Every structure is written in C-alpha cells, then in structure tokens.
Prior knowledge:
Blueprint: H1 12-16, H2 25-50, E1 56-60, E2 64-71, H3 83-99, H4 109-131, E3 135-144, E4 150-152, H5 158-179, H6 183-202
Helix pairs in contact: 2-4, 3-4, 4-5
Amino acid sequence: CTGSAPGHCLPADERLNTPRMTWTPNRRMALIATVTLVLDQLTKFAVLQFLGYAQERVVVEGFFKFVHWGNTGAAWSLFHNNNALLTVIALLALLALFLTRHHFGLEHRLGQWALGLMFGGIVGNIIDRLVHHHVVDFLYFHVQTRSGNEAGFPAFNVADSGICIGVGLMFLLSWQMEEKPSGPATVAETSAKESEAVTSKET
C-alpha cells in the first residue's frame, strides 16, 4: 500500500472480513425472475421489429418457424378475447404466489429456480397484456400432415416456457421432498422398532 492515499489501505485481516453480498433465497429467485423477464421482453421486441403481425418466417421447413401472433386468451387460446379479465387474474395469481412463496420450497435451490421462472414468465405476459392488449407468441412447432395441412403445437413465447418449466420443477421438488425421509423421524422409528424387538425377546 505504499503511496496510497491515507485510509485507502486496509490491513489484510480487514480486507478478508469485508462483507460480500449474500445470495439469499429471495435474491436468487429475484435474479432468475429478472433474467427470464428480460429475455422474454427482448425476444418479443425483436419479433415486433422484424415481423409484421401475422407474418411468419420458416426456420426448419415443415417443423419450426417464427411467427407473430397475438393471444387474447389463456394457454392454448382458451377464453379468447378476455384479455382484461385474464390480466386481473394474472395479477392476483402473481400476488398470491409472492405472498405464499415460502410454502413452495423457497429454501431449496430447485424451488428458487421454479419460483423465479414462474414470476418472470407471469410478469412478462402481464406486460404484454397491458401494453399490446394481447400476449405476443412467436415460437411455433408443427408437422405436415399427409393432406398437406399443418398440425402444430400452439405458438408460445419465453414467458410461457418459464412458467411451464417452473411448474415442472415445482412438481419435481414436491416429489423429491416426499421421497426423501426425514432424519430424526427415521432414527426415532428405528429406535422404536429395536425396543419392540428387545421387548418381544424378553417376553
């Protein structure tokens, strides 16, 4: 630290003890949600810039293409033309999920990923509904039938993917927690069984 300004040189032990940002479950969840939201909005912005409404761009002939479609309904275009109602429902669902996040495995890394993906996805689609009055869908997978028509999976976006993956991870976490035996309970049960065995031998 020779030549440094007074007060700018810390002893080695103090430098080691300098506090660093701790990745709490809420912070990690918020980061995942932010990345999901930014990726969702950037991809939709690109679609709005390079594809006119209802236009398509083939990526893999007969299998995948970029589209610019609007969905005023829910998943798979259910409840079509109910954008305002679905916006309110999404906002209420977002609030309820946030307030009850500790009941959905927030303390587990898998739960943080699941919640972050769902939060980012829900917010991304809410922004669409408020700004564009419909959700912007642009990923379309399909196959060609023998008659020459297209049979495709409903178009979706990054936000939809985040929500679906998040729900899938939540189910996986729930399954893992059900399969994993609790340590203290297992020990107690083992001790009880051993005591019963000893008692039965003595009698």
